[in-house]
Design brief:
The complex is a heterotrimer of chains A (135), B (247) and C (294). With 135 residues, chain A is mainly α. Chain A has 9 helices and no strands. Chain A has 2 domains: 91 residues, Alpha-helical ferredoxin (Fumarate Reductase Iron-sulfur Protein, Chain B, domain 2), CATH 1.10.1060.10; 28 residues, no CATH class. In chain A, helix 1 crosses helix 7. Among the domains of chain B are: 84 residues, Ubiquitin-like (UB roll); 83 residues, no CATH class. In chain B, helix 4 packs antiparallel against helix 5, helix 4 packs across helix 7 and helix 5 crosses helix 7. The chains are: A mainly alpha (135), B alpha+beta (247), C alpha/beta (294). Chains A and B meet through helix 8 and helix 9 of A and helix 2 of B. The structure holds iron/sulfur cluster (6 copies) and FE2/S2 (inorganic) cluster. The site of one iron/sulfur cluster has 15 residues of chain A, from helix 2 and helix 3.
């Protein structure tokens, strides 16, 4: 898929906000694409990890927060191990999630999960999902 | 602050009820002090004996950042305490079919999945007026241990203060009640001596003794009652009466 | 030797087969295990933000409990507990400012400075017991069983807490070899199982299940071993959601195979809690007695 970036918008507010939350500077990404190549969830993401970094570099915070990327990320840390720029991408993903969750917007409704699923999954699945996806 | 002498021989001390200053006699409970100040309880008061959980109150002390809590009917006023009652805090209990419910951890996940949002902040334990280790019973529920949750939460009086403080928006006390009900009804071992006793009673073993009591006058009854041997205030479970005719 | 142990919530409920088999194995190896007397859920995932310490309270509190129990070292079984506790411990050791804030916030707890060491059970097997001693203790070597390791993420990444190389680990391969089985590497051994996305994006999660199972099949393995109840759910239980040809690929907790090889009582393995195919495989190979079928 292609990422639409309007001309003339190079605003670093979102990069700074993410740095504040995560301690990571997404501006250092050199667009090599390694993260997207190793990400186990990439085929279910829209846009890819690298493309998300590009959106951030161009100040496209709305698109970055709405994109499925950070919400499909499984925090597996594969990209962190491989990024040649040493960017802690999982932290960038977490910061994006936090920017939404801190507005008290849940991305999963605990009470909306079917009862059979709640009975079947191990506690660790619930704890992990609610940590990452509820406010 | 000057204290004022009154006819009831108690010093008056200043307290702040919902931000307004009142002078109330020291040594009153918060509940009586609120009434002394002119309020009438319609909610926020029940048993006046520390068991119903209706009168939960939060307060701060001057020069201290902490929030304290207490039952208004049990807690004595202190000079310069700033208080408000929180008689109710919304926390919904979920209906379920008790007869069909299976007593294991899965039902906690099904009815109150938000339990798994607990971050172990411990704000609940810190506010609990009954010193219940609320965080620990939530921890027990997360790992599906209904028996442990039932035992830790045993002193809970459903006042709701924990729910008012919860970072994870959990109605803790309802979940604990679920655990106690399932544990009590479906997991706790049945007491064998109870069944034996019920059997003895229904077989008529005490009918004659009861019949005797029925024939006594009020005076005689009072004598028998006040004359019985009482369990000493400080003793353990091994205490037995010298004579045990009625049992 | 005495070991202080932190179980975590899932091992006390859905993953009893993990805990019971590990405890039976430790007993067979002559270890005395003491569970922390009081503990809370670690939170499962280490918080990745730097400006929010609320989510560090849970793991730090667990470390405080270990300190209170006088434990110099606390052992975990669940990969995610290990990862979360080890990272929180590093935070408390290395970040003075955050350490102070957290200690000051938990006025009801003693201060903590990161003195306790967090280890995973596999590290204990490798570094303190040693593969040789395990080999010598085998009662029922798993000869002929082709087993592949599924490391998942949290044992290996990030490398500051990984129990082995994040890109070329060998600990589980060595473990499998020590049991007398045939260690078999496969392409997805260090990949992610989809983690908590099983609840939020189940379709994306199932793609992970399919990928791991197919890669394992392509390497001709009999079974996978792993060390995390979420991996076990996603790779084991979720196979029922795939219309996979060739039946289920058995998935075990590593401790279950250890318990079998050490000759521990079979009840400790609780194969009834495994996904389909696990118990059947061991019966077929004559490693456990066939269960009476209903
Ligand atoms: S691997 Fe690192 S540098 Fe390369 S695209 Fe991804 S974030 Fe950018
Ligand atoms: S941490 Fe997230 S973005 Fe990075 S590889 Fe894993 S799933 Fe992909
Ligand atoms: S546990 Fe909660 S509801 Fe129960 S007494 Fe304590 S604060 Fe009140
Ligand atoms: S207040 Fe809520 S989040 Fe905090 S420890 Fe208690 S139950 Fe957990
Ligand atoms: S990682 Fe899981 S099982 Fe382990 S304590 Fe935390 S939530 Fe509970
Ligand atoms: S593979 Fe999945 S569940 Fe297992 S450790 Fe990784 S993220 Fe966790
Ligand atoms: S009025 Fe019942 S507890 Fe105070």
């Amino acid at each position: 898929m292609s990422v639409f970036i309007p001309l003339g918008v190079l605003d670093d507010a979102v990069i700074r906000k993410i740095a504040e939350i995560s301690g990571e500077n997404a501006g250092r990404c050199m667009q090599c694409g390694t993260c997207s190549a190793v990400c186990p969830m990439v085929e279910s993401m829209q846009p890819s990890v690298r493309q998300l970094m590009l959106l951030l570099q161009h100040g496209q915070s709305g698109a970055a927060l709405e994109a499925s990327t950070a919400w499909t990320c499984a925090a597996c840390h594969t990209c962190l191990v491989r990024c040649p720029r040493g960017i802690d991408i999982p932290r960038v993903m977490e910061a994006i999630r936090q920017m939404v969750l801190r507005e008290n917007l849940d991305r999963i409704n605990p009470r909306g999960i079917p009862a059979e699923t709640l009975a079947a999954v191990p506690p660790i699945a619930l704890v992990a999902a609610f940590r990452k996806l509820t406010a | 602050m000057t204290t004022v002498k009154t006819g009831i021989a108690a010093e008056l001390i200043p307290i702040y009820i919902m931000g307004k200053r009142y002078l109330v006699p020291e040594a009153l409970t918060i509940m009586k002090a609120i009434e002394y100040a002119g309020y009438q309880f319609i909610r926020g008061c029940g048993c006046r004996g520390g068991v119903c959980g209706a009168c939960s109150t939060v307060f701060r002390r001057e020069g201290d950042y902490k929030i304290y809590s207490g039952l208004a009917c049990q807690t004595v006023v202190e000079p310069n305490m700033h208080l408000a009652q929180i008689p109710f805090y919304p926390a919904l209990r979920r209906p379920y079919d008790y007869a069909a419910a299976v007593a294991d951890g899965a039902i906690v996940a099904q009815l109150y999945p938000e339990v798994f949002r607990c971050v172990a902040c411990n704000a609940c334990t810190k506010i609990c007026p009954m010193d219940v280790q609320v965080m620990d019973y939530i921890g027990a529920l997360k790992r599906g241990d209904l028996a442990l949750a039932a035992s830790i939460s045993f002193d809970c009086i459903q006042c709701g203060l924990c729910a008012s403080r919860c970072m994870a928006e959990i109605p803790q006390y309802h979940v604990a009640q679920l655990a106690r009900r399932l544990y009590g009804g479906k997991l706790a071992p049945r007491a064998e001596h109870l069944a034996a006793m019920v059997g003895r009673i229904s077989s008529g073993a005490y009918r004659a003794l009861l019949g005797e009591l029925k024939t006594m006058s009020a005076k005689q009854l009072r004598e028998v009652y006040t004359g019985r041997q009482m369990e000493p205030a400080m003793t353990d479970e091994s205490w037995r009466p010298d004579e045990n005719v009625g049992l | 030797m005495k070991i202080s142990y932190y179980p975590g919530c899932t091992l006390k409920s859905k993953a009893r087969n993990f805990e019971d088999s590990a405890l039976a194995s430790l007993a067979a190896l002559g270890f005395e295990v003491t569970e922390l007397e009081r503990w809370n859920c670690c939170g499962a995932l280490f918080s990745l933000t730097t400006d929010d310490l609320l989510h560090q309270l849970a793991p730090v509190r667990v470390l405080i409990r270990a300190q209170q129990a006088g434990a110099g070292k606390v052992t975990t079984l669940c990969s995610q507990c290990y990862n979360t506790l080890a990272r929180a411990n590093r935070l408390m050791r290395e970040d003075e400012e955050k350490r102070n804030t957290l200690n000051q916030f938990m006025t009801e707890e003693p201060d903590y400075h990161g003195q306790v060491e967090v280890v995973h059970f596999l590290q204990l097997l490798r570094d303190e017991i040693g593969w040789e001693r395990i080999r010598a203790a085998l009662k029922r070597p798993l000869t002929g069983l082709k087993v592949a390791p599924f490391y998942g993420c949290m044992l290996l990444r990030p490398k500051e807490v990984g129990i082995d190389s994040p890109v070329k680990p060998s600990i589980l391969m060595d473990f499998i070899a020590a049991l007398g089985a045939t260690p078999t590497d496969f392409a997805a051994a260090e990949e992610c199982c989809g983690a908590y996305q099983v609840l939020a994006a189940p379709e994306a999660g199932l793609k992970r299940t399919r990928r791991v199972v197919e890669a394992a099949r392509a390497s001709g393995v009999d079974a996978l071993v792993l060390s995390c109840p979420l991996c076990e759910y996603n790779i084991g239980k979720q196979q029922q959601e795939l219309a996979a040809p060739g039946g289920a690929l058995p998935v075990f907790y590593f401790s279950q195979l250890l318990a079998v090889a050490l000759g521990a009582a079979e009840e400790s393995c609780r194969f009834d809690l495994n996904a389909a195919g696990a118990r059947e495989l061991l019966e077929e190979r004559g490693l456990i007695a066939a269960a009476a079928r209903k």
